[in-house]
Amino acid sequence: MAKASNTAKPAAAEVNELIGNGGELHQQTSDPAHWLTTNQGLPIADDQNSLKAGDRGPTLLEDFHLREKITHFDHERIPERVVHARGYGAHGYFQAYEGNDELTKAAFLCDSKVKTPVFCRFSTVAGSEGSVDTPRDVRGFAVKFYTSQGNYDLVGNNIPVFFIQDAIKFPDLIHAVKPEPDRAFPQAASAHDTFWDFVSLTPESTHMLMWAMSDRAIPRSLRMMEGFGVHTFRLINAKGKATLVKFHWRPKLGTFSLIWDEAVAIAGADADFHRRDLWDAIQGGDFPEWELSVQAFDEKQAAKFDFDVLDPTKLIPEEIVPLRPLGKMVLNRMPDNFFAETEQVAFCPANLVPGIDLSEDPLLQGRLFSYLDTQLSRLGSANFQEIPINAAKCPWQNMQRDGHMRMRVDPSRTSYEPNSLDMAAPREAGAAGFESFAVPTEGTKLRQRPESFADHYTQAHLFYKSMTETEQRHIVAAFAFELGKCKEVKVRTRMLGRLEHVDPELAKSVADKLGMPGQADKIDPAVPTNFKVKPSPALSQYRDPPQTIAGKKIGLLVTDGSEARLIDALIRKTKAEKAKVELVAPKIGGITDSEGVHRDADQFLAGAPSAVFDAVCLAPSADGVKGLVKFAAAVDWLRMAFAHLKIVGYVDEAVPLFDAAHIDRNADDGLVELKNGKVTDFIEAAKRHRIWEREPKVR
Ligand code: HDE
């Protein structure tokens, strides 16, 4: 079995620093455990200079150390994932609750005493590996469970439905959303002609478009995202009984999103916003947690739904089938090495364990082929499962042999079965092993969508109808933004035609925002929208959000002379609420507070716009504010916090900043004065996260 890690570091050694002839620094040690070596283990005397004919002469081909070092460097890159290239992962564990054995015999879901190790990778879909963290996009949510029965992968997204119904359309969808092939832009964006051309010609994408245009596609944090298995799966219990399920991950911190303008600002201020957030949280001991649940139902119930459970563009409203919690996942350790773990991790929906099985969803069926296939070109060898992050943590053995980069040394004379020459060789497990659930199947070989997949608008309408006014406003704005980026008028008018079937009001609002009223194409749907469908309040993020600042970040703007008592109180009280304060000062060197004590700054003003914080607090001194009002970054800090609907706390000394930003301090109750150094009112207000009522006034 592959070793989990071979990177254990020896204790720090004594290092001598010498300056060489050419003035270069040589760091040397006499401790063999710390010697720099070639890949063959040869200790290296000098890593600063190549081997040359004379100190000013040409480099010699003989220099095997130089050649080895450069050759390895030349081959450091592997192909990035064709989708979900930009991702970030963490280790953790999953622990089941009691009582799941009624549903499944999967050992890791049944034994509540076992902590099953997991590796979880979050990702954007369209952008390449070096793109930013906050574009409007679906987020991948992939979890590898290293169970005692082999690896189980739940490879989901943060949105419960998908753009297409059949795997055969996936390359088209992705080609449409990726940068346009002649010009190679835009990067990590769906706001362009080819995407909207394709989806406006693909009515089945309509429901997913509603989600993609909602705030779900601009999450505040990877820690504040839901996850979904999307497809219907089967759980099988020890008696062989199958239950159909949809998987859901719910974040303990609640589901929060950015505002579009904020996401755009963050993309410039901190392209790594999401990964930094996850890194900071886990390194700081604040471990994010999700609850895994299923919506469980049987074939009889499924037959009564007015949609097909094999259709991945449909969801089951929780009001019809409620969530049943199975256990929790905690992420508590960052990888030691990004490439070795996060980049090389290989997920596959076909990685199953006894007790969990597939369904006939035609999108899922295609995925079963794609993931293994893509790993072969991405990781370059059929032995990729031997890479430590991919290796099962239970014993694994079979008759597969050889190939590029085979690590495992199989000692047996036999590499086939049945055999009678090695009685210790691996054998079948029979009923203890994985058995596909016996689904009765028969049919004519054909290429045809079932009629039960044909209603593309009712659930899109259901989603829109279930949103709060704020959420609806954001959806309208997102459609208008994205379609506004399309140069082709026919793409816009076609999409407006589709939106009429989702909701005529929505279509009208988008058309108005585009300045194209009455220009929607007339489109005949295969199945007319059922506008009477019952809304599902559970689909809304903002109807009943948790009132908490846990996991959030408050930016505290300070200057020389800022009140020490207030700074300490805010840090203390915020910590008690499991949130964090960052001190933002005009300069990174920090400030001297009212008590004459030096305080380091976490951020400098021009490098940390208020967009990167959940709430802000302005606590300059009377002298300090005089400098701030002349400083555009400071005025913008307040202006943008207000425009992003944040809770703003302030001390009396900060009033000139409000004047400079032309903001009325009494505009709404999200602007909270900290009287006599009291921070409680501000913290309580910050639990509201945003003042939605402010939005129509500022945008
Ligand atoms: Fe994927 N998808 N996908 N996908 N997918 C990949 O596999 C594919 C789909 C998802 O963090 C690729 O290893 C096809 C739905 C995630 O490493 C590739 C179809 C859902 C990740 C692939 C889909 C997903 C991937 C690219 C339609 C949500 C990132 C690299 C039939 C349920 C996993 C790789 C990670 C990655 C194919 C549709 C989720 C090419 C053909 C639906 C989270 O194999």
From TrEMBL:
One of its GO terms (cellular component) is cytosol. One of its GO terms (molecular function) is metal ion binding. GO terms for biological process: hydrogen peroxide catabolic process; proteolysis; response to oxidative stress. Pfam families: Catalase, Catalase-rel, Catalase_C. Residues 34-53 are annotated as: Disordered. It catalyses: 2 H2O2 = O2 + 2 H2O. InterPro entries: Catalase, Catalase_AS, Catalase_clade2, Catalase_clade2_helical, Catalase_core, Catalase_haem_BS, Catalase_immune_responsive, Catalase_large_C. Heme binds at residues 81, 121, 170, 367, 371, 378. Its EC number is 1.11.1.6. It comes from the Bacteria. It is an enzyme of class 1 (oxidoreductase). The active site is at residues 84, 157. Decomposes hydrogen peroxide into water and oxygen; serves to protect cells from the toxic effects of hydrogen peroxide. Belongs to the catalase family. HPII subfamily. This is Catalase. It comes from Lacipirellula parvula.
